[in-house]
Amino acid sequence: MPGLYPFGFFIRLIKGCHYFVIRGxxxxxxxxxQILFTFVEALGLSSLLALGIGTVVNVVAMPLLAGFSxxxxxxPVLIALVTREFGPLFVAFxxxxxxxxxxxxxxxxxxxxxxxxxxxxxxxxxxEHLGVPRFLGVTISVFLLNIYFSIFGLxxxxxxxxxxxxxxAAVYFGNLLDxxxxxxxxISLIKSVVFGMIISTVAIYQGFSxxxxxTEVPVAGLxxxxxxxxxxxxxxxxxxxxxxxxLA
Length: 248
Known about the structure:
Layout: H1 5-23, H2 28-38, H3 43-67, H4 74-112, H5 115-121, H6 126-161, H7 169-179, H8 182-208, H9 216-246
C-alpha cells in the first residue's frame, strides 16, 4: 500500500542507524555538518523566539494572576507553556522551515543528477550513506535546541518578572525549579525526539521520491515542509492528550 511506504522508509532509516554506528565513518562528516546547520545556525532565531515567548507569557499572565492574588502560579504556567508546550513545538517549526526544505532539495538534487545511482553501482546504500546521518543530525539537533529554548525562555522570563515583582535571581529560579516536575522535562524531551524523527524522515523521503525532472526538486522541498508540519502537530496533540490523561 502506498500509504505504508513512508513508514517502511522510517524503519529503513532506523535499521541504518546500526550500520552508521558500526561502520559509518565516511558518513560522520555529513552528521557533523547537519548538526552545524540545523542546531548551531538556528541558535540565533531560537534565542529571539524564546526571549519573546518567555517575556510575553510573564507580561500577559502576571497581571491576570495578580488580580486573583495568585502570583506564585506564574511558575507552573511558565513551565507548562515554555518547557512542555511551546518549546518543542516552536523548535519543530523552526527546524521544519529551515532544514526540511534544505534536506529534501539537496537529496532530490542528488537523485536527479544520478549520484544516488553512482553510490549503488559501487555497493554503497544511498539511504544509509545520505539519509541516516541527516536523520540522526536533525533528531539530535531538535533535542538539543529544545533544551536550549527552554533554558533561554525561562531565563528571559526573569527579566520580564522584574517589571512586576522584582526579586533576586536565586529566589525566582528556585521557585521555578520547585515547580518543575520530572515529567515536564520528560514529555518535552520525548516530543523533541519524535518531532525530530518526523521532520527528518519526511524530508529525506520526499527527497528520494523524485524521479527525473529537475522541476520536482522545489516541489519536494515544499512537500517536506507541509507534510512534516502537519505530522508533528498531530503528534503534539496526541502526546499532550496522553500526558494530561495519564499524568496531569
